[in-house]
Amino acid sequence: MKKVLMLILAMLMVVSVVGCSSPTTADPDPAPPAEEVVEGKYNDGTYEAVSDAGPRGYGKVVVTIENDEIVALELTEYTGFNEQKGDDYAYGEFHEAQAELTEAYIAANGTEGVDVFTGATSSSTKWTQALDRALEKALVEASSDAEYSDGIFMGATELGERGRKLAWVTIENDKIVEVELKETRFVDDNEEYKDEEYAFEAFHEALEEMPARFIEANGADVEIYTGATSSSTGWMEAVENALEAARK
């Protein structure tokens, strides 16, 4: 009898423990994933860049970016003498293109979908390329580790009493692969390029030799050509300015 009572008491204790235990609850819903932080495409700031240059010059843009939006834009163009085309430039379509494309690029927040301006195709193409290069400079994540953009870049000295020196520098994969040099003079108060009829022989020798020196050095720091010191030093400055224009 005593054993029966003890067995009953043990069973009651088990039932009591089971009854008092808390029911198993489902695991709480997992925490929602942290909201993904979207990095900006561009760094805020003002950036400038130029287009490829040719005998008729190049285009230049200065663009200001805030919160991934173009908030200000300036389009300019330079002649083959490195002179900026100003308000007195006679070609009316140029000024129309300058105004309309400024608004179009800002509205598009870039160059995508912006057509060339009829009557100013050359200017339009130059500005599109220059703006693309400026926006590339502004990227948060650089598109490449290159120091320079590929292309043809123009540099020049300031205009003096005897003219100016100019350089067109072609760059591929951070290497100078071609250099074209010119120098101007005044003839009847008109600025002209010195041509093969220019009488100073050392000038023509330097004109042939200096491009090879710039290419070999992959820069502007080269030896002056004996007998053409003024031309040599001017071209060194012009090449340095061209390289600065090409810098990313």
From TrEMBL:
InterPro entries: FMN-bd (IPR007329). Keywords: Signal. One of its GO terms (molecular function) is FMN binding. It comes from Natronincola peptidivorans. Residues 1-26 form the signal peptide. PROSITE patterns: PROKAR_LIPOPROTEIN. The lineage of its organism: Bacteria, Bacillati, Bacillota, Clostridia, Peptostreptococcales. The keyword Protease does not apply. GO terms for cellular component: membrane. It comes from the Bacteria. This is Uncharacterized protein, contains FMN-binding domain. Gene3D superfamilies: 3.90.1010.20.
